[in-house]
Amino acid sequence: MHAVMMTLSRALAMLGGVVLSALILMTCLSITGRHIAAALGSDAVQSVAPALAGWLLGLGIGRVFGDFEITELGMGFAIFCFLPLCQITVGHARVDIFTSFLSDRINRWLRLVMEVAFFLALLLIAWRLSIGMSNRMRTGQTTYILEWPVWVPYAACFGAAAVAALVGLYMVGVRALEAAQNRDIIGESGEAEH
Questions:
Q1: In this structure, how many other beta carbons lie within 10 angstroms of the beta carbon of residue 2?
Q2: CA distance linking residue 63 with residue 11, whole number of Å
Q3: Using CA atoms, how far apart are residues 25 and 184, in angstroms rounded to an integer?
Q4: CB-CB contact of 185 with 174 (8 Å)
Q5: Do 126 and 49 contact (CB within 8 A), yes or no?
Q6: Which residues fall within 8 angstroms of residue 9, CB to CB, at 6 or more apart?
Q7: CB within 8 A of 158, min separation 6: which ones?
Q8: Considering only CA atoms, which of 10, 46, 188 is closest in space to residue 110?
Q9: Rounded to two decimals, what is the model's pTM?
Q10: Residue ranges per domain, the chain?
């Protein structure tokens, strides 16, 4: 079961990485295009080569239309894509100043409590995203500039959050077994121990 959950988490993280890389590339192109367009429209270039500047601007050199909206929609999805892998590999930030002095048994029970809290938070997020998606579908809301339907990114984020909640539920089960049997199955490193 761990291999299935790990594969699912990694696949979703890779998808998030592809989306994040595409957003980075688009942002770089948009910023570069904006600067080139400003330079082509400057008085200096217009006085030296107005025909060339006009031709290049006519090709569409400039910022990516709707770049802020695309970034906003894509970043939310990418973040949700990374949550399952972070959950299953114990990648969340933590401060263990006080828990390092506790016994392994108590730490296993604390990990279970934290996994339950994470699972409940992920479940709440997924549930609220499903409600938001339903509302956006019902109202037909679109983005301001690109006029894309807003329910689509909600659906994508909901799907990723649902996978994160599923992985969170799996981790609750693993931590419950660890606490009940007083032994590490996944442990602190996030890798399954056999």
A1: 14
A2: 32
A3: 42
A4: yes
A5: no
A6: 84, 85, 87, 88, 89, 163, 167
A7: 126, 129, 130, 133
A8: 188
A9: 0.84
A10: 2-181
CA 152 to chain centre: 15
Bridge partners of 149?
Answer: 142
Please report how the helices 50-58 and 2-40 are oriented relative to each other, as an axis angle in degrees rounded to 10. 150
pLDDT in tens, the chain (194 residues): 889 999 999 999 999 999 999 999 999 999 999 999 999 989 988 888 989 888 888 888 889 999 999 999 999 999 999 999 999 998 877 777 777 788 889 988 998 999 999 999 999 999 999 999 999 999 999 999 999 999 999 999 999 999 999 999 999 999 999 999 988 888 665 555 44
Q: What token pair was written down for 166? A: 């599923």
- In one-letter notation, the amino acid at residue 97 is I
Residues with Cβ < 8 Å from 89, sequence gap 6 or more? 9, 190, 191
Element (H, E) at 77: helix 67-88
Q: What are phi and psi of 107, to 5 degrees?
A: -65, -35
